[in-house]
User: What shape does this take?
Amino acid sequence: MRSINFALALFLLVSGCTRGSSGNTTPTAADAKKFMDDVNDAEFKLALEAGQAVWVSETYITDDTSALSARANQRLIDQTARFAKEAVRFDGVNVAPDIRRELNLLKVSLVMAAPSNPAEAEELTKIAANLDATYGKGKWCEAPNKPESCLDIDKVTDIMRDSQDEKRLRQVWEGWHTISPPMRKDYSRFVELSNKGAKELGFADSGVMWRSKYDMSPEDFSKEVDRLWTQVRPLYLKLHAYVRMKLREKYGDVVPANGPLPAHLLGNIWAQDWTNIYPIVKPANADKGYDLTSILKSRKTSAVDMVKTGERFYTSLGFAPLPQSFWQRSMLVRPRDRDVVCHASAWDIDNVEDLRVKMCIQPTDEDFNTIHHELGHNFYQRAYKDQPMIFRDSANDGFHEAIGDTIALSVTPEYLVKIGLLDKAPDASRDIGLLLHKALEKIAFLPFGLLIDQWRWKVFSGEIKPEDYNKAWWDLRLKYQGVAPVTPRGEEFFDPGAKYHVPGNVPYTRYFLADILQFQFHRGLSQTAGCTSILNRCSIYQSMEAGKKLNDMLSSGLSKPWPEALEKIAGTKQMDAGAILDYFKPLDAWLDEQIKGKPVGW
Ligand SMILES: [Zn+2]
Assistant: This one.
């Protein structure tokens, strides 16, 4: 699953800070430098305290550990908010470029800005917590009087993955979407108040504030995202047409011959990842020819062995091994005696080298990939440890999620042969199975990764009014994904609220960017590694040259604009979805064959 690293998990608030100007004197460049030094020191200490507290609360859930971590987190958030507001007083001061960048980043580090009116700030904090809790407690109960019939998101996810009963899938899909209508009123008030706070920080609205983090104007960033989508859309349309054809063979007329895909039949409650329907759509004679899950299971591979294998990939590129403390302090299997948050995540508790992974590892293909993903966060975190605290982050938020996935793209059959997990790599005729499986994850995700914030940016700007929330949501899902509900979804529903990141107020475009960037990184590093085979068979394993380039980019953290970081690996300052098209070229040709004479689009 898509996980978050700790540094990115902090959802910052501006509290109602009453501190005014700094007195009568105009601040100087030296004052600005001193201010940022103090900020970096204070953030370092507060982040350590919060990191330790949150780690304990997630690996040992009790009322007490939850309270302690909430308190430590709040201290960090409040202090950061005060700093962000204070930074404004250096706006007109002529300071060194590095300090200017630090000040700017401090101001845009907020995901949610509260108005300075204390009553409104308190109302916003409460609403945000309520929205988050409403989602977290969300359950659909088939028989309201029987608690054992209630389905939480985990159970809903299992059914969407495993069931092929159209009626049951529809029932569960509609059931889960009953959790969100109560959020609607809160959400529109949340938009009003958070916009008010954003305006006080100098942004037109919260959506503009979110888009101000990308080293370009918010307008240019919107255009950039559109441009990337235009590049990859033709391939998505082919995948969509092929999947529609196969689903129609399976489910009949509920799947239209030339219309949108029914939202409940794609193996995932949000239709954001279609890998679970692979058994329905898999090619007849091009299965990938091996099953990593069975290999890992038959060898009784332990969780530690799987992580060691992942670590060896990174050390083969020239990275230093993980510190001893990683092995002592990580949580790699589900403990038998207590409740924990199993959702995989990578941590850097002290923002130096106290790296950890928290995960409940099973010997499966999926977890094998997830380990490479999480370790990507860890090696990134350690690479930028010598930067000033505020630069200890990825070049943009898409980069952090992309690194581990880039490495996972190098887990090719040839790599598995090299490390002794597979005897012989299947020949290229089996690639279609591998590529289709990957496309159901990565290509299917792109329009979804894009549209969540298309909806939110318009909601924040006022272009989408509260009375049209649901209509606008489904208009966008139809426009980008070609996905539609099978029954009318009027304004009595609030379907965006059934996706965590909306009530949780987590920006989402980073996942779209990560999906694009990882293929661009993979192509750039594969070229550096001297790979001459087809891109989906390239692995950068054991390439010190590729490792050197990667480390060069990772170690610059957030200190330079992201196009400069990108250039170090990709040789260009532009994001380019063309690498995705290169990677999936064989599949693209195969899809053309499959959908010949069939309708494309909706
Ligand atoms: Zn992640």
